[in-house]
Design brief:
Residues 402-429 form a coiled coil. By secondary structure, this protein is an alpha/beta fold. Among the domains are: 17-97, no CATH class; 234-334; 345-430, no CATH class. 22% of the residues lie in helices and 16% in strands. The longest helix is centred in the last third of the chain and has 40 residues, at 391-430.
Length: 431
Amino acid sequence: MKNLHPKYVFVLLIIGVLTIQAKAQNVGIGTKQPDQSAALDIQSIDKGLLIPRMTLEKRNDIKNPANGLLIFQSNEKSGFYFFDGNKWSPLSATEANSIAAANPDNWSLTGNAGTSEATNFIGTTDAAPLTLKVNAARSGLISTVNGSPTLFGYLSGLSTTTGINNSSFGYLSMYSNTSGSHNGAFGYGSLQNNTTGNYNFAMGSNSLLNNTSGSFNMAVGAHSLILNSVGAQNTAIGTNALQSNTGGSNNIGIGYNAGYSNANGDGNIFIGANAGFNETGNGKLYIANSSTTTPLIYGDFSAKFVSIGDVDPAKRASANTSGGYNLLVKGGILTEKVKVALASSADWADYVFDPSYKLMSLEEVESFTNDNKHLPNVPSADEMAASGLDVSATSKIFMEKIEELTLYMIELNKEVKALKAENEILKNKIN
């Protein structure tokens, strides 16, 4: 028998092995037990599989490439490419330096070109919410359920369950909200602790931060209404405006630190930087540009009292409670017209002409003025200095004296006429 060359023997052995493995419908290279799920199982601990390498031009010269055909492109955007039945596509987005390169319908991490607003968009084609996440935590939500909430910012609106028609933008904005509805929060921590409050609007870092169930509040400015928890219908505009309010309602603070210290007061209005900074009561009005207790304009709604100018608080109280006045002005008032209304006709001096009016004789008036140094029924200078001048009352007194003077003049006129008549008689007798 003729001896076979060793290389032919080796080839025959390889063919035999492959034939045996082929009968089992899978082939193993480097293993006698190829994986049953693989048609070809290649195993090695120090060598790899070398895929055919070619240029872009040679790749494009392949006639009728099979679906799934794999090559390694050596130039241009080098990397592994496979034929997907219609075109050559990179095996991974990294190799093409773009997700979009794998599929023109994908969005690229480095931007897309040739897009159309009519057909290209980021979103969903059904009613499913669109969610954005950072570190696996929701950081954005656009939804058609629960009144179509719009939430953007890390952990923004995270706890919302049944609340509807809410919008929040910013880290932790509206974080604890569960059933509160119709709220808007814009800024870091805005409305962070709100749970059930409704119809609140917060804009600015930590605005309405601690609100839980308070409703119908508006806070615009960093830390505005930051401590409010259950107070309702408050309006704070400006950094730190109404900052200390926790349970007060129906307050308005406009300006930096306006109404800063008021915690539980109701119905206050503070306008201006630091206006009413130390006020803690109810129903007060401050218009000022500092924390002074004597603001340009001060008001007490319950007492229906207003003061203008830096009026001392003690004088304000005296004028309102003791004097019964509703307006106190420090300094002069310049106006082109003043009209004083009378409560009734009894506040005017026409009673002087009533027949029952007791008109003092001029001798009595002279005696009174000698003793008192002022006319009867007219306040003394000391009284005027102490209590001020009541325009209405003083006008009545002036009119009383004018009418009394008129009566005196009428009486004197009668006496003059009588004397003239007597004088005429005497003249005729003499002649």
